[in-house]
Each structure stands twice: as C-alpha cells, then as structure tokens.
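queue> pop job 88
queue> type: inverse folding (structure -> sequence)
queue> payload:
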C-alpha cells in the first residue's frame, strides 16, 4: 500500500495525543495549573493535528464531516465520532481541573476508556480489511494501543518531571510499555513475514476463477501505464530497505527512548523524558511508514505481483 504522509502523521500524532489524554485524565500529572494546562493543550494539539492531517488523504476534505454519518458500519466513521466525544469530554475535565481545581475522577475514567476505544477504532480501520493479510490480525490493534500508551506515558512523564522534579512511577511505566509495545510489534512483524499475499486465500486462479484449467499467469498487464491502483495498492518496498527501516524504527522508537528514560530516572531531569518522547515519535513515524509500505492488497494479483513477467514500471515503490 502507498504510505501516504497524511495517514502516517495522523496515526502517529493522534495515538500519542490520546495516550497522553488518558494519563492526564487519570491524574498522572499533578502540580501547578499551568503545567497541567500545558499538558492538556499538548494532548489536544497532537490529537487534533492528527485528525486534521487525516482529512488531507480524502479526495474532498471539505466533505469529511459526512464520514461521521456511517458509524454503524464503518470503523473510520466510528473513529471520528469517538474522537470528537473523547476530546470534548477531555476538554471539559481539564478545564474543570485547571480553572476550578476539581479533577472529576469519574469523568477521568470515562475519558481514559474512550481514549483507548478511539485508538482501537483507528487500528480496526486497517485490521478489519481481509484484503490486506498483513493487517488482518488482532496484533494490529494491540500494537496501536501499546504504542499509544507508551507515547502517552513518555509525554506524561516529561510534564510530571517538570512539575515535581522527577517522573516517579510514570518513568517506570513508560519503560514497561515500551518493552511491551515492541514485543508486540516483533510478533506482528514475524507473523506478517509469514503471511504473503496469497495467505488470505486469494490467488490469480481464485481471482479469475480460471483455476480449474490450471495455473494462471500474467501475459500482459491490465494497463500500459500506471494508474490509481498501481500507485495506491501495488506499492513495493525492497527487503534491504525494509530491514534498515525496521532497525531505525526499533532504535529510535524503542532503544533510544528507553536509554533516555533510564538516564532521566537516574538524574531526575525532565529534558531526558522530553527527548525520549520526541525520539520515540520519530521512531513511530518510521514504523508507520513500514506498516503501510509493506502491506499487500489482493488487487495486486491482477497486476502480476510476484510474477517474473510483471513490468517493474507498474510497481512504483522503493527497491
């Protein structure tokens, strides 16, 4: 699948924003109203920026509101409705906590739960697609939720360390969540490497219903030049590049933040946690790029995906 920048930014920023919102809603950051207000604005800003970025992937962004009407059948619509509800309730809780010094813990539990459900809905936009075997697994929402929680914990630890001089248990929670998130991602990568395009049960034979006559192979491409499907659905990334990007994602998204958090726990300074959060987000950008670039849609079977005769020009991607 083509790794659109708008969707990569959307899933990265909104995940971190909702993760931070969940920790703030549960009262993980205390201190002066100014610090709590800054943390709340950061969560709202990240989530809102991600949602706005997602609209740029639509053909008619000005009609994005219409997607909200399909919540009964569409995970995309559910994600939009849940985002609005979550951010609205979160804004109410934070305004009450900052301006009136009333944190409303019961509302905080609701906001934290809605934040998790919103991230789950985002993941299910992709995990529900049977036509993309790599995505169609319960590990997809697990990775999204754990990365959201890890990013939120790192950001919350930064604000707590700034307000109180140390991150306390949030630093250790961030470390644990980083380990769990990348362990889940390792399992996801292992499964995806064992789930080639035909693993969903679709082959050129089943797609054309000519399997009863024997093996089907592509003689000529359906189109002489590239088109929307070849640009969006038949993107390919070379194994060498994928391996390098996986290593970059793990280092930036996991190892480097873990080291910075450990230094922050030892030294007690908030800049360590802030740096860990920023580096982690950079690693997640790489992870999300691969999430889309390595995905294979079954429509690629019509374009000779994997066939020796398939013209390289139709596979616009990185080799």
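queue> result:
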């Amino acid at each position: 699948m083509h790794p659109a920048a708008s969707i990569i930014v959307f899933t990265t920023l909104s995940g971190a924003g909702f993760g931070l919102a969940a920790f703030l809603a549960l009262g993980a950051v205390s201190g002066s109203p100014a610090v709590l207000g800054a943390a709340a604005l950061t969560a709202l800003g990240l989530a809102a920026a991600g949602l706005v970025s997602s609209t740029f992937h639509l053909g008619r962004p000005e009609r994005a509101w219409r997607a909200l009407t399909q919540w009964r059948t569409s995970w995309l619509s559910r994600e939009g409705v849940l985002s609005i509800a979550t951010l609205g309730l979160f804004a109410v809780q934070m305004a009450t906590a900052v301006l009136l010094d009333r944190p409303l813990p019961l509302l905080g539990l609701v906001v934290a739960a809605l934040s998790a459900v919103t991230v789950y809905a985002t993941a299910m936009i992709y995990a529900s697609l049977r036509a993309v075997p790599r995505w169609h697994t319960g590990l997809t929402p697990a990775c999204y939720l754990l990365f959201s929680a890890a990013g939120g914990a790192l950001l919350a630890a930064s604000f707590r360390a700034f307000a109180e001089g140390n991150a306390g248990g949030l630093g250790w929670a961030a470390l644990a969540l980083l380990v769990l998130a990348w362990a889940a991602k390792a399992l996801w990568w292992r499964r995806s490497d064992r789930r080639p395009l035909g693993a969903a049960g679709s082959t050129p034979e089943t797609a054309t219903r000519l399997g009863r006559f024997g093996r089907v192979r592509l003689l000529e491409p359906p189109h002489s030049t590239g088109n929307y499907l070849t640009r969006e659905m038949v993107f390919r990334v070379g194994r060498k590049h994928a391996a390098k990007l996986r290593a970059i994602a793990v280092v930036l998204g996991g190892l480097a933040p873990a080291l910075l958090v450990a230094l922050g726990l030892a030294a007690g300074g908030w800049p360590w946690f802030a740096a860990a959060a920023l580096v982690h987000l950079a690693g997640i950008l790489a992870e999300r790029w691969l999430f889309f670039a390595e995905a294979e849609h079954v429509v690629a079977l019509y374009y000779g995906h994997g066939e020796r005769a398939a013209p390289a020009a139709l596979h616009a991607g990185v080799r």
